[in-house]
Amino acid sequence: MSKRIGIIGAGVVGTAVGVVLNEKGFEITSVYDKKFESTKELVERIGCTAYKSPQEVSRSADILFITTSDSSIEEVVDSLADYRAFHMGQVIVHMSGAHSSEILDRAKDFGAYVLSVHPLQSFANVERAIENLHGSIFSIEGDREAYDKAVCIVETLGGEYFFIDRKAKPLYHAGACVVSNYLVTLIDFGVKLLEATGIPRQMAFRALLPLINGTINNVENIGIPEALTGPIARGDISTVLKHLDCMQEMAPDLLQLYCLLGFYTAQVALDKESIDFSCKEEFQQVFSKQFKQILANDSI
Fold first, then answer.
1. What are phi and psi of 2, to 5 degrees?
2. Helices 255-272 and 237-250, axial angle in degrees (round to 10)
3. Which of 12, 119, 244, 266 could make a disulfide contact with 136, Cβ separation 3.0–4.6 Å?
4. Lowest-pLDDT choice from 48-52, 148-152, 182-186, 259-263
5. Secondary structure element (H or E) that encloses residue 30, with its range
6. DSSP β-bridge partners for residue 139
């Protein structure tokens, strides 16, 4: 496998990937960022050349990483295509979760191959990114002829991988957003419920943090649905009804989300086989009834 790599976009991900691949023996030939000073860390750490145009980077590389912001990828590809800066057999890679490899397709007009190689991970800064790349799981999507290159890249970064179809990329990204983004929303929801009882927000968060960590530990060690606990998992509908009654009085604006989550959780409890089908139906009827009442009140 050819090891000459160019990087357009020297942010956290581009820099981290460049550092790790360089350490593993790949030659980072060149780097470009529209903010020239952004290339400083990567240049200083691995001694690559910072070019003043993306075209120079592309022409020097057998594998080209476009690790700009998601909103800039198409603009970069169009510019490179307009300058005829792609070449036969070149592999073009982006690491966006939101975009499929389709956004790179103009490069195929020049005989290049396109790939999306996305780590299911969040990166706060370069050092954390370098640390977190190892052990991450990546999705690979794009031209099958270049899958071996994608696999080599992922394995070099110390990751695992799976393949997905281009048309499924938005659904894949939605799943990642639910787990990463909505987890934050869910924690905020729990904190707000405690706040409604009079507990200060910071104390509410600190109180819930060991529970959050314990739950994540359970998910990691025994999986889903086995990690599900609580009244729905136990079939304890009387406790859920008390939740609803109290929430109606003290936190009515949070009822709707509680019902939606409860409705879904009843199915998870059934999957765990800790409740039977009739119990699941009873839970879901309670949540549906409450939800319809909320909608009816909102429409008045």
1. -65, 145
2. 170
3. 119
4. 48-52
5. strand 27-32
6. 118, 162
Contact residues for 243 (Cβ-Cβ < 8 A; gap 6+): 231, 258
**Cβ count within 10 A of residue 196:** 17
Distance between CA atoms of residues 43 and 252, nearest Å:
55
Per-residue confidence band for 35, with pLDDT thresholds at 50, 70 and 90? confident
Give the C-alpha separation, 252 to 289, whole Å. 15
For residue 145, pLDDT beyond 90: yes
Tokens standing for residue 295:
């909608």
Residue 232 class from Cβ within 10 Å (0-12 exposed, 13-18 middle, 19+ buried)? Answer: buried
d(C-alpha 72, C-alpha 92), whole Å: 15
Residue 24 DSSP code: T
pTM for the whole structure: 0.85
CB atoms within 10 A of CB 288: 13
Q: Are strands 137-142 and 113-119 parallel, antiparallel or unpaired?
A: antiparallel
Nearest by Cα to 117 from 74, 86, 157: 157
Instruction: Name the one residue in this structure whose structure tokens are 């109606």.
Output: 248
Q: Is the pLDDT of residue 3 over 80?
A: no
What pLDDT digit, counting tens, does each position of 198-252 carry? 999 999 999 999 999 999 999 999 999 999 999 999 999 999 999 999 999 999 9
Provide the token pair at 207: 């109180």
> What does the pLDDT average to over 5-21?
94
Cis peptide before 54 (omega within 30 of 0): no
Amino acid at 255: L
Nearest CA to 61 out of 1, 4, 104, 101 is that of: 4
Cα(252)–Cα(291) distance, rounded to whole angstroms? Answer: 11
Tokens of 57: 């980077």
Give the pLDDT confidence of 60-100 residue by residue, as tens digits: 999 999 999 999 999 999 999 999 999 999 999 999 999 99
